[in-house]
Amino acid sequence: MKKYLPLFPLSIVVFPDEKLNLHVFEPRYKQLVMDCVEEGKTFGIPTYIQNGVGLYGTEVEILNIEKKYDNGEMDIRTKGLHIFKILKFDKMAPGRLYAGGDVEIVENKYDEDVITKLKIRENLEKLYDVLGLGNLYMELPEDFKSYDIAHQLGLNTEQEYTLLQLLSEQDRQEAILLHLQQVLPVVLETEKLKERVRLNGHFKNLTPPNF
């Protein structure tokens, strides 16, 4: 499916179903928001990465204008809908201050693998426990998807952008599990190092080896 979308490039990755709150202050994006509200339109947030507008982003809908300020700035609530690929980018949409572009909504599969999902849950529990973030694990939905945890994995923007481009839930699960399996030993070793530093200088109750 192809369409023309107003575009709001940001240095973040937005995932489908994600709730995102934005403070809008630039004149061009204040115009974008008002156009979308008045015309009942959606807009796109492509990821601004490596000094340029990335080809991929997420179409979002405005749920509510939470607050309007005297100077025209706004706090808005949005929700991610679909992933798109930019086919043609206009720095300024016709007759408007903001960017726009021809985009193609890409097909996204939600074909999860139950075993991989269980492994992800186990590794997440260990990671959050070590980091003292057990509350995040407690808040994890029973039937969570990759997008539900994507911002809670310690990924950098480049890694999140790579995840955005994986259009199968199984591929996303495999990428997330690999990341957790790589980062967990590092975090555990860091905790051990911190403990060794704390114990340095203390009286040690050690059992001599038998030889």
From TrEMBL:
InterPro entries on file: Lon_prtase_N, Lon_prtase_N_sf, PUA-like_sf
Ranges where the Lon N-terminal domain occurs: 4-182
Superkingdom to which the source organism belongs: Bacteria
Pfam families found in the cross-reference section: LON_substr_bdg
PANTHER family on file: RING FINGER PROTEIN 127
Name of the protein: Peptidase
Source organism (scientific name): Pontibacter korlensis
